[in-house]
Amino acid sequence: MTGAEELATTAPAERTLHTKDLGNAVLLAIDTALGSSVALGIGDRIFEVSHDDPRGHAEAIGTLIERVLEHSGTPASAVTGVVSGMGPGPFTGLRVGIAAAHAFAVGRSVPIHPLQSHEAVAFAVGSDDPVRIMQDAKRRELFVTGYAGLDSDGIPVRISGPELQLRAEFVAGDADVWPERIPAARLVELAALRLRAGRPFETDRALYLRAPDVQPPKPGMLGAGAAR
How confident is the model at residue 115 (pLDDT cuts 50, 70, 90)? Predict the structure, then answer.
């Protein structure tokens, strides 16, 4: 399967990839930045299940985690680390995956490995040339991250973003990649590369890039309402 195929909604909902042996690491990856994707890497294989409904994250994520464990024949107790896709992505969807990753990690007492979701896309493309990952952010805006190919460890080199850009200001380029899904299997591979090379992970902070729609009431608002 090519990088372009695995980033499209026409890709299989379930797939198994061969990879470099992960050794003693058993990594579960969860991403809900664009649809929902869960993968588990064990030995020299990665099992991935995906659900492309952009609104069904909360309903799908538990089922996907159960399915990838079943599909791989791996008990939850065997997982040694959880890779969490941190976005960029919309607030409502992204927080579901991050919360699920944290809940699983806390429940099994294993570490969280945060990674930017667009890095998985750049890794799937696998180009030594610059690429720009584009994602619809709604409200006539785009999430944009630029990469300059892969470094000596095989990890994409981020050169810009992630940032929020007005769609009206967007100028198309030959290096643009518009994924329809985030491949969680590639998050597993990226985490394994970072662990082998002793490279740091991202900050454990969601990349919403804009404030959520629902805001807490301003000071005095509750009191004013109660007085009426």
Answer: very high
